[in-house]
Backbone:
């Protein structure tokens, strides 16, 4: 392994093996990835589809794909001559020796850019697992679940039932007294990493714990029977003598009775078993009565069970621990199994399954996957975990691949969702080369220097040994001329340390709540001042000797908060001051007030006769009714009836037309947007409403829910926690607004001005947690209550501080021009909030201890000697409430436009075959052709009784697309998948009947007589299901098509129309067999119950009736044009085999060609059609 | 509409309603256990051993509450009192309930609040005015009890209470009970009293139990509601009650 050298994206040689690139914040990580891809293509000659790029989010993959494409295109153009404004590209150009070859490689790469392997880690795992389903032992078709919460909840509930329902009252009561519900029990064990961390204690059997408890209880019960009367007398006398504390004196009777009841068989564990020991009893003796005589003397002759009572208490604690341990292990072993059983997979499962497939399936899978890619670039590698690292190192770490791991351990902040910085360290150990990116392209040079200074100001700035996680200062790439802030002609600082002055109370210390509030007031005031329309701050730039100034706008400012709650507080504070602001957070839309209001509304709509529900719904803000207005409506019978009836009609509309149609009507009729627009956070509110409506609609459609099921679902969503990215709050507006962003969400983003108002905050809640996860011996440990719990708790606290430090690094490196860093001297509240001295910022800027207020002020004041740095003291009380002075809005004068010459009606459109066919007759699955009323005698069709309708048609299409023909022909069981398909299409049919029909379809030879082939005989590699097509129509007159296809028995003439634009559609199946290409289409039309109903003449009539003839002519033309383009030496008569329309109900393997309409379209007719359609090459 | 899964816990409202049902049974001396099975069948109570245990614990807890009633010495329940009074310019009619042989019992298995205090005072005043004799009114909450009785006087008078009520029907009243009590506790320090009242009002609006007031004050600055009129009502209506309750 070589040391950390600077990575020159243009020149550093690309090497096989593991290359670790450490990219500090703002050093152009994405740019570097683009350059590495460019060089892999041009220098190493690796085709673009053999380069794997993995990044963290879906959005990042899209951005990377776009950046890589643009980089390749720019390079291709530059190779033809000229230079770029980008010095790195010019450096690279200078290294290219054979420009022609490089250009050709780039041209090919750009042609295949859509096949570039740019994935999220999860989509990579999914693709690898499904592509190699056999090798990796996975299902072919699994449904991904973003949120496994519901499956986990069911599992926990099942555990609860099976484990607790059969228990005796005493032991069951011990569990339920601490964990009253399954959810409480689950919360005590569920944590990131549960699936793979080491659970401690290693072993504690519930059976053994219960047996031990019963033994201890029996001993104590014996004692109680023999000695309780004497103890009772002692306590009674002590009470009468006033020797007991008042509270205990009053509760004595109750406590004693609860013990009595417990020994008599009542469940649970009575409170204060420790009062049965001397030490425990001493706590409830009245201290004022024990001055001369000691408590020990007084209690000396009390008969007490002492150790027996303590043993019972310990045994009860073991029962709790054992049941939690058992649940943790059940979740670990069963969750995956249950997901798999249901055909589901979680995102985490994808990684775990690929990891275990690689471990268990040996070299075969590794080799197959390794051959797919020659180079792999893993972005955001600091957010990896041990399983991900094992996957990449197993596939690409053998030395034959170019493996580049790009990340920044200083920005590893996703521990809460399973990221593991120790895996990064393991990767670094294994790396053959280590490089870093040296220049910061984001921030003002003084700001870069100040951040360097903060993190260089102490040893171990990230609370790791410097050799493990050092801080390497970066150099600024920007100059002062690239942008500086000015206001009132004065240059503004680049870093402002705002120190909250001493609190008027508590010896100058602040409570965290008050400090946050005061700082919030200050931030709002400062933003008002920066944006003041009369005198806004401006960004002044200098380029080629020219100065330019741009006023600062609201969207240039970001406030980085710690939690969603903080974000809401800032949002409201900005709203009160009149400053537009938006929140970017990971909060679920189901956690909002709008979700609650929607639930209230839908509850009323789903139960339209319930007058109370309707009244309740009328109070939501959507209707904008004041209390007086509501009262007036409720007291006016006709007015209320009117509302009541409207709710009834919405309910009807919901049932008949679906959710969204009903809601759209309600929103319009009730002026909901108008009402919401009057509220304080109107845009936020309306964005949430839209978002919720979309989610409800989507669920209602995919799950086929009725109103009541929709309500149950919505209530569950509101009650639960959602991990689905699609449910996170959307940005309500792209307009000019201050961005309020959680620090976790801010990674990868940058803003001209950034406020960091929470770096002094540190939670102390971990100290109370009954569940601790931390690292030990390089692995994750999940401690539920082992003997080492305290040590692990301390370790976890240190890891939390280390992550807070990384979070602080992320926050402090977001600003381009100016960063405000807030400090307050905050006192600790045990188990809630730590002292600010122990926070990330306290650790960084006061390495020798924060001392008192004066010491802190002196230290912060000292920073202002650095260039561009300022220290401000924030007054403890706001002097006046601030209000943003908005710029004057210009009145808009509306003018009418003169009508142009352009026609608003156009023929230009995207048309489908179905749209074209509708000019003749609507396709109608399952309908009989007209005139087919005579019941034809003859043998019955093989699969009678199957339903008609479009859903059945879709089911058969999907099944024939999904399952390999060979497997259908061989009778392989697909019951489960078929059952799922049936559910999807709302079909209640036996899957065996469907499977039998499918077997018939694939086994029936398609042509009469010998020599025909069946679907089962087709080579799976020569099939293309659901082939999509688009082709250009210059100016298509349906009359010309009618002329071209005149005399075709299966074609119905179209009514006159002119069409322009594109024709699009899907061909059910295109296949190659014996060197010829065929078009196949599946039809589920019911033509009759006898096989004779599917005779050739009947099929011709059916084809004509639905104008399938036109369809196959269009498809034939599509395939003909396509083959002419891509197949060297293509000749229609040689290569085009024909079309088959499979009327599946009439097929029978014993009768070749049965149920099949087969045709070989005449070449001359096709040529006429080609000319009529036009738009071809 | 309920989910088709069994309940493992109860929400606040459901728990309150079931508590009241159990208390009613206990007061009548009925065996409460038959309720358990019924509630389980109705999917209103958890199943299995945990369900049995939690029901036993609930009954024991409520039994303790009910057992506090007999020692109050109010005797058995008696018929309601018909009320028909001239109060200033108004006529007050209706029926006074919860009467016992030796007083009035207002009991609620929950935290005793300012509303209970006000209700107790109205019972005390109306009964006194209607019968001409002072009555002992006991307000029993989950954790404590309070009383109005002989020697409590009659201020604020029934007339004042009716005026406040009628004013509140004409325009939103500034009598916010819990905020008013919070203000009274700290009235010696006006700034702290104001802050405490605003905080109590915010809490009241956020806890969701009083949708009407929340609707009325939606979007308004609660600090402005703690104004002179609020203070005057707190001093006129609430302060005497706080001073007299035992």
Residues:
């Amino acid at each position: 392994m070589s040391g950390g050298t600077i990575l020159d994206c243009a020149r550093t040689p690309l090497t096989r093996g593991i290359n670790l690139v450490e990219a500090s914040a703002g050093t152009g990580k994405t740019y570097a990835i683009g350059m590495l891809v460019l060089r892999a293509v041009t220098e190493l000659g690796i085709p673009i589809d053999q380069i794997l790029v993995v990044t963290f989010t879906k959005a990042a993959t899209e951005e990377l794909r776009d950046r890589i494409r643009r980089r390749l295109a720019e390079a291709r153009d530059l190779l033809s001559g000229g230079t770029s404004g980008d010095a790195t590209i010019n450096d690279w150009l200078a290294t290219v020796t054979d420009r022609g070859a490089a250009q050709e490689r780039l041209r090919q790469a750009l042609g295949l850019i859509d096949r570039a392997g740019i994935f999220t880690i999860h989509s990579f795992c999914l693709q690898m697992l499904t592509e190699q389903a056999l090798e990796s032992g996975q299902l072919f078709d699994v449904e991904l679940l973003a949120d496994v919460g519901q499956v986990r909840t069911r599992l926990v509930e099942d555990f609860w039932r099976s484990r607790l329902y059969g228990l005796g009252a005493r032991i069951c009561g011990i569990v339920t007294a601490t964990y009253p519900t399954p959810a409480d029990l689950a919360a005590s064990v569920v944590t990131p990493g549960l699936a793979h961390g080491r659970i401690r204690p290693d072993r504690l059997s519930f059976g053994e714990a219960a047996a031990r408890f019963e033994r201890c209880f029996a001993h104590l019960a014996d004692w109680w029977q023999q000695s309780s009367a004497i103890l009772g007398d002692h306590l009674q006398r002590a009470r009468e003598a006033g020797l007991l504390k008042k509270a205990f004196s009053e509760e004595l009777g109750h406590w004693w009775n609860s013990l009595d009841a417990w020994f008599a068989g009542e469940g649970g564990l009575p409170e204060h078993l420790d009062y049965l020991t001397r030490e425990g009893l001493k706590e409830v003796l009245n201290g004022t009565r024990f001055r001369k005589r000691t408590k020990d003397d007084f209690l000396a002759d009390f008969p007490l069970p002492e150790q027996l009572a303590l043993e019972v208490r310990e045994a009860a604690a073991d029962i709790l621990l054992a049941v939690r341990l058992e649940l943790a292990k059940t979740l670990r072993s069963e969750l995956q199994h249950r997901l798999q059983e249901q055909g589901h997979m979680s995102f985490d499962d994808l990684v775990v399954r690929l990891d275990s497939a690689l471990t268990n399936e040996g070299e075969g899978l590794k080799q197959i996957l390794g051959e797919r890619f020659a180079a792999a670039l893993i972005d955001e590698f600091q957010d990896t975990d041990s399983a991900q690292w094992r996957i990449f190192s197993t596939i690409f770490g053998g030395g034959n691949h170019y493996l580049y791991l790009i990340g920044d351990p200083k920005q590893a902040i996703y521990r809460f969702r399973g990221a593991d910085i120790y895996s990064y360290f393991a990767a670094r150990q294994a790396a053959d080369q280590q490089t870093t990116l040296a220049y910061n392209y984001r921030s003002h040079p003084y700001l870069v220097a100040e951040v360097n200074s903060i993190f260089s100001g102490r040893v171990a700035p990230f609370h790791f040994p410097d050799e493990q996680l050092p801080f390497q200062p970066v150099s600024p790439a920007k100059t002062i001329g690239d942008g500086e802030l000015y206001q009132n002609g004065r240059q503004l600082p680049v870093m402002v340390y705002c120190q909250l002055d001493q609190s008027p109370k508590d010896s100058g210390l602040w409570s965290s709540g008050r400090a946050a509030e005061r700082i919030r007031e200050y931030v709002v005031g400062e933003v008002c001042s920066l944006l003041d329309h009369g005198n806004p701050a401006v960004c002044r730039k200098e380029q080629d000797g020219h100065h330019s100034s741009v006023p600062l706008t609201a969207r240039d400012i970001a406030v980085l908060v710690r939690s969603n709650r903080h974000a809401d507080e800032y949002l409201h504070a900005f709203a009160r001051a009149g400053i537009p602001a938006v929140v970017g957070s990971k909060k679920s839309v189901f956690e909002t007030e709008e979700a609650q209001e929607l639930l209230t509304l839908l509850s009323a709509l789903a139960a339209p006769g319930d007058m109370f529900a309707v009244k309740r719904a009328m109070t939501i803000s959507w209707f904008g009714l004041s209390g007086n207005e509501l009262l007036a409506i409720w007291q006016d019978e006709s007015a209320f009836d009117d509302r009541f009836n409207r709710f009834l009609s919405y309910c009807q509309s919901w049932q008949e037309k679906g959710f969204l149609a009903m809601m759209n009507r309600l929103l319009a009729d009730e002026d909901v947007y108008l009402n919401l627009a009057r509220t304080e956070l109107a845009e936020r509110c309306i964005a949430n409403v839209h978002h919720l409506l979309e989610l409800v609609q989507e669920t209602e459609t995919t799950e086929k829910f009725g109103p009541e099921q929709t309500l149950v679902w919505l209530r569950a969503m509101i009650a639960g926690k959602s991990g689905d990215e699609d449910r996170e709050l959307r940005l309500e507006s792209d307009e000019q607004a201050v961005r309020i962003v959680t620090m976790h969400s801010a990674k990868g983003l940058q803003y001209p001005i950034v406020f960091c108002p929470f770096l002094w905050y540190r939670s102390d809640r971990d100290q109370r947690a009954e569940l601790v996860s931390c690292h030990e011996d390089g692995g994750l440990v999940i401690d539920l209550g082992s003997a080492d719990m305290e040590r692990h708790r301390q370790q976890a606290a240190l890891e939390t501080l280390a992550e807070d430090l990384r979070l602080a690094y992320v926050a402090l490196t977001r600003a381009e021009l100016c960063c405000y860093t807030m400090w307050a001297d905050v006192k600790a509240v045990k188990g809630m909030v730590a002292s600010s001295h122990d926070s990330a910022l306290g650790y960084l800027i006061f390495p020798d201890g924060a001392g008192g207020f004066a010491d802190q002020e002196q230290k912060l004041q000292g920073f202002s000697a650095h260039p561009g740095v300022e220290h401000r003291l924030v007054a403890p009380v706001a002097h006046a409430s601030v209000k943003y002075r908005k710029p004057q809005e210009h009145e808009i004068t509306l003018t009418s436009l003169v009508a142009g010459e352009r026609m608003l009606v156009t023929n230009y459109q995207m048309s489908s075959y179905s749209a074209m066919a509708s000019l003749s007759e609507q396709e109608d699955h399952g309908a009989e052709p007209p005139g087919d009323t005579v019941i034809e005698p003859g043998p019955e069709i093989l699969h009678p009784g199957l339903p008609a309708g479009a859903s059945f048609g879709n089911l058969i299409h999907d099944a024939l697309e999904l399952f390999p023909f060979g497997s259908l022909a061989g009778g392989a069981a697909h019951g489960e998948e078929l059952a799922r398909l049936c559910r999807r299409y709302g079909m209640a049919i036996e899957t065996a009947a469907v499977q039998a029909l499918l077997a018939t379809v694939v086994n029936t030879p398609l042509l009469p007589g010998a020599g025909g082939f069946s679907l089962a005989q087709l080579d799976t590699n020569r099939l293309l299901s659901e082939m999509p097509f688009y082709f250009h129509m210059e100016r298509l007159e349906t009359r010309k098509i009618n002329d071209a296809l005149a005399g075709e028995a299966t074609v119905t003439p179209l009514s006159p129309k002119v069409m322009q634009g594109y024709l699009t559609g899907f061909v059910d199946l295109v296949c190659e067999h014996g060197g010829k290409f065929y078009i196949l289409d599946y039809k589920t039309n019911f033509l009759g119950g006898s096989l004779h109903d599917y005779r050739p003449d009947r099929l011709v009539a059916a084809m004509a009736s639905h104008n399938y003839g036109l369809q196959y002519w269009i498809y034939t033309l599509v395939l003909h044009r396509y083959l002419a383009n891509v197949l060297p030496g293509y000749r229609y008569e040689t290569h085009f085999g024909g079309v088959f329309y499979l009327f599946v109900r009439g097929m029978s393997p014993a009768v070749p060609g049965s149920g099949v309409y087969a045709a070989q379209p005449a070449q001359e007719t096709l040529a006429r059609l080609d000319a009529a359609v036009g738009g071809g090459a | 509409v309920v989910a088709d899964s069994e309940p493992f816990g109860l929400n606040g409202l459901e728990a309150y309603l079931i508590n009241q049902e159990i208390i009613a049974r206990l007061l009548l001396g009925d065996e409460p256990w038959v309720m358990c099975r019924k509630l389980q069948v109705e999917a209103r109570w958890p199943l299995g051993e945990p369900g049995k245990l939690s029901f036993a614990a609930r009954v024991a807890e409520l039994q303790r509450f009910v057992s506090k009633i007999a020692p109050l010495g109010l005797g058995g329940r008696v018929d309601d009192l018909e009320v028909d009074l001239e109060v200033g310019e108004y006529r007050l009619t209706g029926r006074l309930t919860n009467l016992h042989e030796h007083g009035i019992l207002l009991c609620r298995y929950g935290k005793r609040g300012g509303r209970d205090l006000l209700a107790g005072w109205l019972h005390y005043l109306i009964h006194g005015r209607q019968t001409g004799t002072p009555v002992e009114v006991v307000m029993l909450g989950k954790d404590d009890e309070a009383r109005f009785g002989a020697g409590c006087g009659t201020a604020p008078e029934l007339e004042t209470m009716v005026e406040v009520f009628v004013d509140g029907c004409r325009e939103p009243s500034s009598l916010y009970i819990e905020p008013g009590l919070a203000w009274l506790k700290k009235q010696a320090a006006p700034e702290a009293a104001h802050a405490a009242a605003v905080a109590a009002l915010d809490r009241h609006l956020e806890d969701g139990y009083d949708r009407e007031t929340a609707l009325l004050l939606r979007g308004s600055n609660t600090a402005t509601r703690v104004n002179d009129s609020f203070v005057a009502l707190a001093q006129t209506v609430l302060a005497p009650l706080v001073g007299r309750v035992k």
